[in-house]
Amino acid sequence: MFLVFIAILLITFFVILLATSPTRKDKILRHRLSGIRAGEYLPQESADSPLLRKHAADQSGWLKTILTKFGLSRRLQAFLTQARVSLSAEGLILLSFVLAAVGFFLVFLVAQVLPLELAAAGVLGAAPFTWIVRKQSRRLRAFNAILPDAIDMIARALHAGHSISGAIEMVAQDCAQPLAAAFEEVFRQQNYGMPLREALLHMLERDPSQDLRVLVTAIIVQRETGGNLIEILDRTSFIIRERIRIHGEIRVHSAQGRLTGWILGLLPIILLLLISVMNPGYSSILFTDPMGRRLIYIGLGMLALGIISIHRIINGIEV
Asked: Is the separation of the CB atoms in 311 and 265 below 8 Å?
């Protein structure tokens, strides 16, 4: 019984020790605070590593050094931040290289055709960037869709006698995501002592929306030169709503062109796969004969050129 009691006591003590031990985040915070007290964090730190707001991926490494040398680290990190992807710039590059290698070797096992191997490596290597771009685009569309309502809310709050900071707080509390989180960060930065101008410009860096740029410009210009901010916000809201409406009409009228592009781009590949399944030896000459390989190269080049041309024609209309 005594041994059982000692065992239970030790297990309980160990569980309490684990439950009350500081987490990794707490240890990092304590380390930074102790560094500040000791004077280790000096003012000459670059803008890539702001004080107390270092990203988890800001650890030194050979890939980080290479990206920083060519000026890609900050751009990629801003790209990931805009899409709200919890991934470092180095992790994105490594993931892209791994997927490219997987695509290359998969095609190498099926058909030893160098252009097809490089094409598969390029497609899979670009897949993470494509996913992030699409995620960023969807987020910006959702952001722009509710931005006019937020502008109206700011105008009503100002008309009721609230300050611009109070209006931003109301937007952060009452609007839907993802806009609420962006304005909440602005309000939090203001509470920490950051000027409104810098907080708004930082929000514009995190969410590079053209409609948001109009709002930020209107607020900054009004605070520096004066004017009726409520009237400016009402006109801004009307312009953004009209822009969204016209953009939606353009997408409706260009839907046929986008569908045509998808059909023309995928039809040759689908037909080749169907023919290979129905008659396995029919298309083998394309991969074994030198002339067949040249025809594949020419076909892929013309197919890529056609897809790029259709994409530029359909998406070349700006509102």
From this structure: no
